[in-house]
Structure formats: structure tokens, C-alpha cells
Amino acid sequence: MHNSNRVIIRDENYDNKTLRLNETLFSNANGYIGVRGTLEEGVPDDFNTMRGMYLAGVYEIIPMKQAESLCNLVEQKQTMLNVADTQSIDLYICGERFDLGTGEIISNKRILDMDNGFTSRQILWKSPLGNTVKIVTKRMTHFDIPQLFTIEYSVTSMDFDGEIVFDSWHIGNVTNYSDPTDPRLAAESPSYLTVNCAEAIDNSIFCVSSTKVSNISIASATSNILIGEDDYIDVYDNTDDRRVCTYIKGHISEGQEIRLVKFSSFSDSLKSEDPAKDAMAVLQDALEEVGSDGSGLEHLYDRQTKILKSFWDQSAVEIYGDDDLDLAMSFNMYQLFCSAPRTPGYSMAAKGLTGEGYEGHYFWDTEMYALPFFTLTDAKLTRNILHFRYKTLQKAKENAGLLGHKKGALYPWRTITGEECSGYFPSGTAAYHINGAVSYAIVQYFLATGDESFILKEGAEILVEIARLWLDTGNYDRKGRFVINEVTGPDEYTCMVDNNFYTNCAAAHGMKWTIKLLEKFANTPEIIALKQKLALTDKEILDISKAAESIYIPYDEELGINPQDDSFLQKPVWDLASTPKEEFPLLLHYHPLHLYRYQVCKQADTVLAHFLFPDSASVETMEKSFRYYEKITTHDSSLSTCVFSMQASRLGLYDKAAEYFGDSAKLDLLNLHGNSADGVHTANMGGSYMAFIYGFGGIRIDEEGLSINPFLPGTLKGYSFKFGYHGRLIKVSVDAKETLVELVSGEDLEFSHGKERYRLTGGEKCNIKQ
């Protein structure tokens, strides 16, 4: 059945094996608050749970001591914080505590409703004494009130009369998750927060904590209402470990339903001068809207639904002939929407707000893989995220200085505040191609939206400082070629190389577009003022232009491919066929130096460059390179199969495109890499969208405008998608018989298909040749 309603329903086993994965898949987030899908009642101590609640941009600074303190190596980092736990609720039925580890589980389901923006648990449980209850929880992080998180906890007696008690907790003494065996997670789990106060005010609980080094204050407030009969609410403190409990007692009769509604609000000193006052104000507003009898709760839910309807109306992808794939794409898009910061100046973590993998750091992943999704579905979110790079431009310039550069900005490989958090520089700080991701994202945003104000106010300055960095990093060799040495490309199984093909292509692209945009807006007051501000001379502009035109692009005549770097083809080829499955991913089983000495790729590198920079090589060279690198790529990175899919589409290798796409799109729902329990792979989710829209859909946006060249994979019956372009909303529908392009709204549209040009006015559809 086609999933017209975007709902995931799973029967849940109460075991340690699947618990942490479901915590990820059934998490809640809204760009500011992230809540892991942990069980309200908790789990036994021997269960492996990542119980977490997170606030975007909130971090602590912790030491990262180097074994040898060489000049300017990074010795401290930021890490995302687990903030106060407000999701804990204990339920007592006739004196028995609800615990799935006792009694009998008759049914146990998890639900994610992506049309209405909530998660749910539906449980039928018989207690050890034989009392049967139906328990339904409904959780929501609100998109319209981003500081609000709610839990609706419903209990229905199936066969008994008796007392019902809720202990609704507000716990300040929390710690972060850790796993010292996995480099993608923190190795330590101390409590990063000092709880300054945790107390009851009337029937609400209020907690203020602060970090020890970054000096961030975090405030949280909770309140509960009980919808039912004969209820009694009291609050008591347990201040020894900074835990405060709201005690709620009532009587339940056979067939009766009683509902507890718990409200949590959050604020922090990065977004508010008085986070405590702010959190309490948000809480009081929500309580007033809902009312003491809960009558306004549906209005709160309706606001959530309205926002999601608008989102899906602008972005919906529908796939016919593969319901699992259709649902996986909706899940990926929904998670991206949940992870995007609504406030300008914040970026998006590699795991969004669903878990502590990579410690909440921002990578190149955001600009290169996630931003294309937002640019085509909600461009305001793209601009919010790009503003983070402008906000941290000065820190990027300081980072460049630490690495010996006299000019330019080098963005950090891993960061939350704009300072480098990567302790292993060969596959971290040396990955200068993050600068290429930032410049590429700026250009693509401009091409897709025509937002000149962003270029004039922020984008041009970022591009100039990135171009300066390339100019200072590279040099001219004896043949007059501009070369870039000692850098690391996207493939982290090959580090510290000369002339990484991808990096050189990205540098050339960024420098060329810097010149184009400076020339395009040369006479504007903003660019005239920018040149004065940066002391940007005509000679420097000429130097940037010359470097871009002279950059060395490696090519191997014998194989007819672009080598990944100058030394790559000199190395022996890793025997992947003879490598045991249990030794993947290789980075967890082999020393980095061992990996660096072989032709083996963690992920797409040259193949990605060919997709992003189609003028970098001939079609013949691209296809030969694709087939060459396909044989030596492990896809240990989640960012790999989506790239192979989108490039296979461009090359007309449609069967391969479909195969790689399925692996990418279903990665988290099927836990294909075995580590989705640490949080979703937001970049891969964006990559699967790119593989679908740019690959199958054949969308290309460049200086020539918009082109649409779709194909239908043999595994599908059809598909449709919507996307935005220069303020227009466009829908493309493809099946075995025809391809329709519809201008849903906006000004007249011109686009190309192959060598043909088409023009549409609002509401018009046209059939394009297959």
C-alpha cells in the first residue's frame, strides 16, 4: 500500500539489541530541542541506552590533550550537551510500578507520524498482579514554539478499579553518553553541567544549570495537568541529586481513560539574556493556551500539523512501486526538516539533534549534502545556516593564521562555535576542501534563488576570504601549474596528499565564482565598500583569477582516468574481496598509516568531484573513473553510495543508480551501517535527496538556468517531486508513459530538456520528451 500518510509503525521488542536504535528512529526535534526516543519509565542499568535531550548550539569546552604538544595543535574541543531530563515519568497502577521488564507485554508499538509531527508508544500491559492497562504516549517538539516539548501520557484501565499515580520527574544531574571504543563518540562521560537550582514554584518545576568553562546557562521548566477525575497534584524535592518530582494521584475505573499532559520549556543564554525568565514565559503561555482542563491541546497539535502540511506541500516526494523506498525518503526529508536551525547563525550537526555521535559537531557535510535539500524546499533555512559561516568568518581567519597562512579564512573541519575541534589533523584540519563546500553552497544557493542581498551582505566576503586561502595555500610548480600540496580530500583512507583532484576542482570553482560575482556586482555600493574593508586590490583579484585558470587537474593517460591525487596510482590495490566482513569499517580495524599506503577509498572522492564539477573532465573520463573507483571503494562512509547513485544517473548507468540509491535512502531505517543507534546520518539523508532529485529527476541548476532531464528506473512504476526555483514552485511527475512538468506557482518559468527549451505560465503543465 502506498504511504499517502507518512507514518512509521513498528512492533517493538523490549530488549537491549534494538532499544538504542529505536531511540534514534523515534526521536523528536524541531531545530532547537532534540529528544531521544527513550522510554519515559527508563530501563534496567544493564541496558545500553543513550538517554538524551539536547539544545542546538549549547556546548561545553573540554580538554583534548595531544600526546605531543606540537605548534598550534588543537588541545580543546566543544561537545554538545545532554541537558536536563524532563522526559522521565513513572506510572504506578494499584501500587505496582509500570515496567516492561515485569508482568506481561501483550502488545508494544512505536509510531512516528510525519504528517502531524509527533511520536507515540502504544502498549497493552498486564501487571504481575493481573491488572491490564492500555498506555499511549504522544510526544511533540513544537515547530511553531521551538522551546516547547510536550508529552501526553494516556492510561486506560481494561479490567480493574484502583489508584493511579504518576511521578513526573525533572532531573538536572545528567551526563553525556560515551563509548571509548568508537572514535565517532566521546570517550568520556562526566557531568558537564553544574545544577544551580532545581526547585518547585507552585505546581511547576524550575531548573537552572550552567557549564563550567563555556559559561552558558540553561534553564528548563516543567508543569503537569491531569485530565480525569479525583486528581491530586503535589510537588516534592529530592535536592541531594538535583531531582525534583511532581506527584500526581487519581482514581481510575474499569474502562476509564486518564491523561497526564507534561509541558517542558527550555532556554539558554546564547539565545536569551534571561533564560530562566524566558523558559517560564514559554511554559506559562503554553499552559494558558491548553487550559487547565486540556481543552486547548488539540489547537497546539493543529498548529504543528499546519506547519508540516506547508512543508510537504512545498517538498513532497512520492515514489510508486516501492513503498519501503517511498517511506524511507519521507523519513529522511522529515528528519532533515527536524534538524534544521530556525535561528540564523547556527548550523546543523552530523547527527542532527537525534544523538551524540560526533559530539554534535558541524562538518562539511552540512553545506555539501544537506543544504541542497533546504535550498530546493525552504531556502530560508539555507540562508540561516550559511549565516553561521559568516558569523564565524573571523574565527576561520584566525584558524588560517594558526596554520601559518598570512591571508584568508580556513573553516574548521569539526566545530560548534567556529573553532577547530578535530584532534587528528591528517583527516581533520588538513581537509581544506571544507572551504570548497562552503563556497560551492553559496554559489548553488545564489543560482537557485537569485538572492543578491545575501551575496552583497555576506556571501561575497566569505568567497573572497576563501579564495585568498587557496591563493596562499597553493603555489606554481616548475611547469607553471598552480598546485595544492599536503591536503586531505573527502576520502579519509588517503590523507595528506599533493593535488587531491577533488580539492583542486573545488578550489578552482570557488576562485572562478569569486571573480564572477565581484565583476557582476562591481558597481554596487556593497562591493565597493567590501573591497575597501578587505583592502582587496586589482592585482589580488587578478592573482585569484590566474590561479583558478592555472590550477593543476591530475589526469592519467594510460588509464584514462583522473587520479585521486599525485601518488594514488603508485600504491598497491587493497584486496577488498579477501577482506573479512567483520573487518569493516576498515578504520576500526587497521592503523591509519596502513590504510594510507593502499588504493582503497572510504567514500566517493573523484566521483563526487565529477558530479559537482561536470566541466572537470570528459564524459568518457568520468565513466572510466567511475568504474575504476567503484572497485576500490568500501562505502564505509555513509556519504558514499548516494554519490555513486547520482553520478551513475548522470552517466546513464541507470541500474547502478537505482541500486546505490536504495542503499543510501534506507540507511537509517534499516540500520545498514550498524550505527544509527548513535543518531541519524543527516548528510546521507540529504545525499539520498540529491541522488533522487539531481539523479533520477535530472535537475540541474547552473549559469544557463534550470534543466530537467529525468529518467524512470526499471525498479519503479513512477514518481513525483516538488521543488523551489527563484520563488517558483515546480512539480515534476514521471511514469512509464510520460513526464509532466507543472508550474504550481510563481512567475513564468523557462527550462531546458536536452536541447529543447520550454516556457510555462502559472498553473500550466507540459509534457516533455522522455
Main traits of this protein?
single chain, 770 residues, alpha+beta, 9-stranded antiparallel sheet, 5-stranded antiparallel sheet, 25% strand
Overall geometric form:
globular
What do the pLDDT scores average to? 95
Q: What structural class do the secondary elements suggest?
A: alpha+beta
DSSP summary, beta strand count: 30
Cα separation of the termini: 28 Å
Return Rg in Å: 27 Å
Helix content: 25-40%
Low-pLDDT segments: none
Summed up, the helix count is: 18
Major beta sheet, specifics?
9 strands, antiparallel
For the biggest β-sheet, the strand order reads 1-9-10-11-12-19-16-15-14
Q: What percentage of the residues does DSSP assign to strands (E)?
A: 15-25%
Fold and architecture overview:
With 770 residues, the chain is an alpha+beta fold. It is built from 18 helices and 30 strands. The strands form 8 sheets. A 9-stranded antiparallel beta sheet has the order 1-9-10-11-12-19-16-15-14. The longest helix is centred in the middle third of the chain and has 22 residues, at 452-473. It is globular.
Question: What topology does this entry show?
Answer:
Layout: E1 7-11, H1 19-25, E2 28-29, E3 33-35, E4 53-55, E5 59-63, E6 76-80, E7 89-93, E8 96-97, E9 104-113, E10 118-126, E11 132-141, E12 148-157, E13 162-171, E14 193-201, E15 204-211, E16 217-227, E17 232-238, E18 243-252, E19 257-268, H2 275-290, H3 297-315, E20 317-320, H4 323-339, H5 365-377, H6 379-391, H7 393-402, H8 433-449, H9 452-473, E21 475-476, E22 482-483, H10 501-520, H11 525-534, H12 538-550, H13 592-596, H14 606-612, H15 619-630, H16 641-651, H17 654-665, H18 682-696, E23 699-702, E24 705-708, E25 718-725, E26 728-735, E27 739-745, E28 749-753, E29 756-760, E30 765-768
Helix pairs in contact: 4-18, 5-6, 5-8, 5-18, 6-8, 6-9, 8-9, 8-10, 9-10, 9-11, 10-12, 10-14, 14-16, 15-16, 16-17, 16-18, 17-18
